[in-house]
Amino acid sequence: MPIAVQGAASTPATSTRTGTALALLGVIAFSLTFPATAWGLESFGPWSLVSLRSVLAALIAGGFLLAARVPLPGREHWAGLAVVAAGVVVGFPLLTTLALRTSTTSHAAVVVGLLPLTTAALAALRTGIRPSRRFWAAAVAGALVVLCFTLAQSGGGVSGGDGFLFAALLVCAAGYTEGGRLARHLPGWQVIGWALVLCLPLTLAGSALGLAYEPVHLTGHGLAGLVWAAGGSTFLGLFVWYRGMAEIGAARASQLQLAQPLLTLVWSVALLGERLSPAAPVAACAVLVCIAVTQRVK
To answer: Taking the model in full, what pTM does it have?
Structure first.
């Protein structure tokens, strides 16, 4: 039986609430990505980990696509799917994994702190939709709060992985923007599903080479990190994220990610034993205010 992803017609208010809830689920899934990657690096090298997570996610997505008998996307969608694949399937995971060899997850949260603003700016350029000045003011304020907090949390220094982190910021924002646009024409799970399948030949080759040249030391943490990065962050997270973006727009959805670095820091304390600053509650309240403003203005 085909998988039902498009519901009956709903009111704008209901659609907005549903889209916001789905995007928030995506943010929660993404917030576990850095801790899961840190766990995965206990067992695998960076190239092996990125390739294997993409292969596993592609197998999950391919299974759903086959079960639902989904036809191939139209030609007009393949260029956009290639951008999604390059940005969120290959680029962001690879660059952040390379960065996490020398950066803590707390420091890597700087990327996520700037990602909402970057995504909103790229979405405005790509779609031509221009949010209000109040929206941009709240978005910039939220980015500054998160940036200052995460820099303070990581000691205020610059790490050796920052070049990878800022490159990851740009490619991920491009992938989010294009995926959000495509999700208006294809169900969100198909957007990430086809992007993963598109990359499968490359990621299979990468897995073979990575496993041949990088040492593997299997641990429970390492396997759990790999499984979550593949099934949780890459497939499930992007599925609900793109669906939410299609409902409420890329600019508004992106600002929900202001909460992601703070959630990542909480997971870093709970799962990795990193220390959290006493300023976290203050930063969290400030971020929630900024998110509330961006969700109420256009």
So the answer is: 0.79
